[in-house]
Design brief:
By secondary structure, the protein is of the alpha/beta class. It folds into two domains: about 140 residues, Alpha-Beta Complex (Aspartate Aminotransferase, domain 1), CATH 3.90.1150; about 260 residues, 3-Layer(aba) Sandwich (Aspartate Aminotransferase, domain 2). Helices cover about 40% and strands about 15% of the residues. Strands 4-10-9-8-7-5-6 form a seven-stranded mixed β-sheet, with helices on both faces. Helix 2 packs antiparallel against helix 10 and helix 3 crosses helix 10. The protein binds pyridoxal-5'-phosphate.
Length: about 400
């Protein structure tokens, strides 16, 4: 990959922050957008904007084509069988809430159990906890090992006849661990249990083939894969989605409405009440094309190189604890420095133009497990460079000089 050329595609990266070139290492929170994506938003509003599905007029047909073309793009991106299995949402969080609410209503009752893991983001914990209070289900939690991998023996032991769903992250947003989802799905299916995979940190870095994985639900957010905010995806097997009730009521999701009885639209529209973010979907199409043109495998190789390079340099500093030392890891490094609060490091890095994440990273149970209040996290994307990793390490050394003084 020609990174210099790629960086020219991302206007925001030209910026200086506090008179230093911006080094953007907060990609696990959200990625920057290439010009094709920004232009797609602007072009859609300048040329084809009209509400989708409802109009016979020219513009409405064009925007509907854009929106439904986006659905076909996502189908192909995930290798889903049919576009009926692609539901547009606001992002990972809404996708998981949709499944919790709708699958929960159809298939879960008091005493049933849902298995998550200790490394989940809050958005794959709290929706299930809401069901604990609403329906009396129970959450069971897969512990992690010292290197930050799922304890697969403990996982096997958690499965009982009460287990009705397993919901785990593809990749941890804190530890970077790439979880063995193939194995999890195979174990789950041999016990007739469906699996939801939170792909927020997976889809941007790993080629996902939902048919090959045989996964029941796979969810991700557009904004973490170079698409705009406010648009995301729920993939669900048709056989499940068909049996699940609508998540929200309103326009688009209905067949026929009378005051006596309402029938629902077919898949995928049954789950898409109200005007969708069709401009977001049109722009997400460009983002997915952009990623596919570069090759997601090439992106992963590049990010892994940055991960290894930076990890070595970090380790050489001394007094640093890195959280997540799996050999199967994506481009995320979370760490702490002995005796120093992560916020102090984040602030001093910021003053040198380096954007990193600090805090609990929406994974407070994991922080409790690790016995820490928070971490500093650097996370990489396709446009980052080794030169930026050097700048980050130099800036960190400078910050530590000040803080240890
Ligand atoms: N799951 C994981 C693993 C994440 O990293 C994130 C966001 O950081 C989410 C879920 C939530 O994503 P969103 O806020 O886009 O819905």
């Amino acid at each position: 990959m020609d990174i210099t050329k790629i960086r020219d595609d991302f206007p925001i990266l030209e910026q200086e922050v506090y008179k230093r070139p911006l080094v953007y290492f907060d990609n696990a929170a959200t990625t920057q957008k290439p010009r094709v994506v920004i232009d797609a938003i602007s072009n859609a509003y300048c040329t084809i904007n009209a509400n989708v599905h409802r109009g016979v007029h020219h513009l409405s047909q064009l925007s509907t084509e854009g929106h439904e073309g986006g659905r076909e793009k996502v189908r192909q991106f995930l290798n889903a069988k049919t576009i009926k299995e692609i539901i547009f949402t606001r992002g990972t969080t809404e996708s998981i809430n949709l499944v919790a609410s709708s699958f929960g209503e159809a298939f879960l009752s008091a005493g049933d159990e849902v298995i998550v893991s200790e490394m989940e983001h809050h958005s794959n914990i709290v929706p299930w906890q809401l069901l604990e209070s609403k329906k009396g289900i129970k959450l069971r939690v897969i512990p992690i090992t010292e290197v930050g991998e799922l304890d697969m023996n403990a996982f096997r032991n958690l499965i009982t006849e009460k287990t009705k769903l397993i919901s785990v992250a593809h990749v941890s947003n804190v530890l970077g661990t790439i979880n063995p989802i193939e194995q999890i799905i195979s174990i789950a299916h041999s016990n007739n249990i469906p699996v939801l995979v939170d792909g927020a940190q997976g889809a941007p870095h790993i080629k996902v083939d939902v048919q090959k994985l045989d996964v029941d639900f796979y969810v991700f957010s557009g904004h973490k894969i170079y698409a705009p905010t406010g648009v995301g995806v729920l993939y669900g097997k048709e056989e499940w989605l068909d049996k699940m009730p609508p998540y929200q009521g309103g326009g688009e999701m209905i067949g026929k409405v009378t005051f006596e009885k309402t029938t629902f639209n077919e898949l995928p529209f049954k789950f898409e009440a109200g005007t969708p973010d069709y401009v977001g979907v049109i722009a997400m199409t460009e983002a997915l094309n952009y990623v596919e043109n570069l090759g997601i495998e090439n992106i992963a190789v590049h990010e892994t190189e940055l991960l290894q390079y930076t990890t070595e340099k970090l380790k050489a500093i001394g007094g640093i604890t890195i959280y997540g030392n799996s050999s199967c890891k994506s481009g995320v490094i979370s760490f702490n420095v002995d005796g120093i609060h992560p916020y102090d490091i984040g602030m001093l890095l910021d003053k040198q133009g380096i954007a990193v994440r600090t805090g609990h990273l929406c994974a407070q149970p994991l922080m409790d497990r690790l016995g820490i209040p928070g971490v500093v996290r650097a996370s990489f994307a396709l446009y980052n460079t080794k030169d930026e990793c050097d700048k980050f390490i130099n800036a960190l050394n400078r910050a530590l000089d000040i803080l240890k003084r």
